[in-house]
Amino acid sequence: MGNTHGPGDHRSQVARDERRDTIEALTEVSDHLDFALRLVRSTVADRDRLADLTARIRSVEERLKDDRYYLAVIGEFSAGKSTFINALLGLDLLPTSALRTTAAATRITHGPEFSLLVRFRNDGIRYVYPAGRTEGAASPLGRMLLHLAPYLRVPSDTAGILSLLTADERIAPHLEYLEVRHPATPLRDGLVIIDTPGTNAEVGHTEITAEVMRGEADLAAVLSPSASPASSSLTGFLTEALDPALLRRCIFLVTKMDHVEEDEHDDLLNHVRRRFARLLDLDDVVVQGVAADAVLRRATGRPLLGPEQEYWADIFPTTLAALRDLMQRQRIIAVSDHLLRLLEDVLGEMGSELEDAQRRLAEEEAELGAVRVPDLAAFAQRHAVRGGLLVDAGAENARRAVSAMAAQWQQYTRRSIDAAIDAAVTPDDMRRVIRTDVPDLIRRDLPRIGDVVQTAVTAALADGAKQAEAAVEGAFEAEYAKLDQTTARVLRPNFTVVNGHALADSMLQAYESNVAGVTQQLRAVRQQATRSGPIGSGVDQWFTSMPPPTGPRKGTVPPNMPPPVPRHSGQFAPPNQDRPVPYPVQSPPPIPPPPGAQLRGGLGGFAARVADSLSSTDMNLLRNHARAEMHQTLQTVATGLAVQIDEAIESATGHYAGTVREHVEQYRAAYEQTVADMVTEHHRREAILAARRTLLQDASRQTERRRATVNSQRERLSTRGGTRI
């Protein structure tokens, strides 16, 4: 004998299935909350934005813990919204003359007494009425009402204040938030009613209604009057304000059905159902008829107006029970929907931010490509050549400053030698002058030559080098300024483009150090400044092993004296060439001993041989002979001295030119590193965007899966047992 199951067993199974679906939905919501928190914490960097999103997620979590049921009431002004809400509450609470300009949703919640919570636009104060012992115009809210409408008569009762807030055209447009608290039984049982602005009212009401549905309402009762059911204005408003998911959380109520003949009820409701389904693109539309005036009359003890009102008043409890049942089932789905909408908002913002960031990055890349030096090596070489030319100009100035130095020394020394020769009285005096006095006179002023060269050469070359340095600095500073003005410089405060002035300061320190080094070496020019030895030190070498004179002779450069080196020779390359300039130059032979220590060699020995060759006793002849020999000797020294001065200039020029090239290279390397850092930063941000894009795609896929789960749960909870209201 088979098992039999009665209606009670079926109802028990339905109840168990509902509990199971409810538990699953609650579990899913908890998982949605965790996912939302992880997502915003991993993607939102702005602290204020993160705090705002976290607070919104927490509010959804609190909404899940809230066991009340939120019903939004939507409809045109002619639909009888206030009467319907009063019928739900069983009392005359809301005035039925609310204005179209009322732009705030009115929330009706449970409270121990009839009271109001009010907030006005452009005013951060929250007003509570009644408040303490003051009432009417003397209360804080009353004073605010008088501020908005100076000649307003402010009532003292709460119902009168509520009527002013919703029905007075001087007050209603300023209302931003209104909460009505009342101890009515339906409210005590957990019902929260949200009266939205009329759908055919002022611009901006669409967003208010949409926000209520997205963030608060579990279900919406959309009211449509029987005289003009499912009007184009109402369906147009719903299509604009609510997306398909929100529309599926609506029940459509045709009001004032007591004005319709009984035999037209079904036809009218079916017509409305088909029209809403077609215009709102809904597969399953729940449509019910109500007569709120009849329900309210019965609740308040007023007589009903005929059998039609009797009928609708009798069936309203069934409609109300079905409405409450649907709200209970939709509550969890609504919470999940609120949360997923928040996630979709976050993902939408992330997508927009990524697009903006990618666009900015592309602009920065193009900007950097446009302002950076295209051929840095050629740019640096060009300015190195220009710097070398400026140093060469300084060398020419130095050469002009000291070019006559050897001749001037020769002329001055010649007069001294002539005076010494003329002062000789006897042949022995003449030999002493030639042997001792003349070498001393020649050597006497040679040490001063190095000091004069130091002063003149350092001044001229340093000026040229500074001009070269200023030109290089100016060129690179202009390029740095271009980099400094790019968008990439602004977007990352901790990224600093190398400043040309800061770099120039360090370059100048190195430059001055090098100048000091050259100056120090020029100070030692008598020890180590030319290839042929210190200036004047070649005197003895030039005369070593020179054959004794036999009489007056034409002046020639001694054979062991190095010939003058032309400028820009192979060894001393021009500053703008890449061949290294040896600095300091190779050390010359040791410093010669003091005069008189080498009498048979060098200048002293040569002079001694000249003195020994003087055999005539005719003083005039001796003077002429000695003068000719010493003049030629002096010419030999002056020629060698000129060569040494030129070599000293070449050596210093090479050093300064090398310093300028080093500075150009330092600027080039620093600029190259700056651009490389900017490119690296660009790549770093590209990688971050790619990672965020991947995260966004993954989060979007997860959100879509969660959305599908919520839709499936909505269908199960709404059609449990194969029935809908």
UniProtKB/TrEMBL annotation:
Dynamin N-terminal domain residues: 71-257
Record region (Disordered): 530-580, 698-725
Keyword Cytoplasm: no
Name of a matching Pfam family: Dynamin_N
Keywords for this protein: Coiled coil
Superkingdom field: Bacteria
Compositionally biased intervals (Basic and acidic residues): 701-718
Residues in coiled coil: 340-367
Gene3D superfamilies the UniProt entry points to: P-loop containing nucleotide triphosphate hydrolases
Protein name in the entry: Dynamin family protein
Organism: Yinghuangia soli
